[in-house]
Amino acid sequence: MQPVLIAGQWRAADAAGKFTAFNPQTGEALPDVYPTSAWTDVEAALDTAAAAFQTLRTLPRVKIAEFLQDFASRIEVRSEELCALANAETGYPVKPRLADVELPRTTGQLRAAAAACEDESWTQPTIDTKLNIRTRFEALGPVAVFGPNNFPFAFGSCSGGDFAAAIAAGCPVIAKANTSHPGTTRLFAELAQQAAEAVGLPSGTVQLIYRTSHADGERLVADPRLGAVAYTGSRHAGLKLKTAADAVGKPIYLELSSVNPVVILPGALKERGEKLVDEFVASVLMGTGQFCTNPGLVVLLAGAETEQFLTAVGKKFEAAPVGALLSGNVAESLARGVEVLTHAGAKVVAGGKKPDAAGFRQPNTLLRATAKQFIAEPHVLQTECFGNASLVVVCENINELVGVIKSLEGNLTGCVYSDTAGSDDATYDAVAPVLRERVGRLLNDKMPTGVAVSAAMNHGGPFPATGHPGFTAVGIPTAIPRFAMWCCYDNVREQRLPLSLRNKNPTGELARLVDGKWTTSDC
Q1: Active site residues
Q2: In terms of CB atoms within 10 Å, which end of the chain has fewer, N or C?
């Protein structure tokens, strides 16, 4: 039984149960056994995190930056071990997915968070010299991070963007591992604890539990010792946590589900139809479709080019290898989602025969429905099929196309492909404003699968893509204020103010909003 990390020590869990991870490629259980913690473990973690927060909030920001830098370096030293373990638990290839893409992204996020710690611009110091009112963002309190199954490094509960943002804000993290890759998360926690000890951060800055009961998970997110919650995962589980957190007014940042509509206009199909077939197939099947931004819905206008597109995509789906899904639960959920769509009237263009290969697999599946069907049952036909599947909706005219877009729930992304000669411009102008309201990120002429780590990126969107449309889960420093509160100092004496709110600019470079103007000057 693997130990949990609580109060700076790896110790035996107070286990209410146990579980193992599985190799998705073979379907076989991996050797390590992990505990389902009883509430006593959670209680101890909460007490420790609350104490750690009181120390963290008094430390110079440079100490937290040193931790993030040291952690990133330790990850790079142990990169081969991390990639091998994640490969066994997720089935993702070591190269290029883990070693060349996700791991550098993870260390890059941590280092960006370190830079934000030292810069402090994310705190948005705001000063009114006439009224002597001064305000900035400050750390909110301990944060519970629930990591997803599909990004063991870059979104991991003890390594990913939510973790980096919470630590950069000055918040201790209670990491709840995803049960698809507990060993990978454990190794990240080991390295984080080593970095915390080397830098001298308080015990409990980083803690790890693997699993709790559903009831204890809901109790955790509602606990008064906790400042905020970050969760990436299924809509069903996320909404239960949201209900518990909302009941006590606890901030909870959720990434739940998204079909990420892609609208391909007729001119684009005529101009570069074969290229679009390849782009779409690559995007849907990459990583067996297990991306938050996987294009699960494509909207087209009826015509000969559309039929050619569907035929070509169907053939490529049938011919492509069937990748492994992350777990048996993911495979079962995908099968149920496809069944829901077909029961609602969607027709199977490709897929249907389950692969004979070992492991957790479902066929590469392409379905089609009419706009009339979609508009009649939009909630059913927006059922997310997380994995290697996508639904194409064929519209008879522009009015139907706009009607489909108006029927959409909130999504992380939405994309419109149009031709370069301008023949699609009028249709684009009718579609884009409607789509803009329903997505966090609007794209043109590119599939949505990639999410750049940039301060300008929005990995968020209207409900149910996320629980709150005003924040992003990707991008430093823009993701940090989720875990902070707007703290006001009214007529507080100069020597009692935080350095960034005093008359003298502490670095000479920190941008502050002074009397309505951004400046780096002293007050």
Answers
A1: 255, 292
A2: N
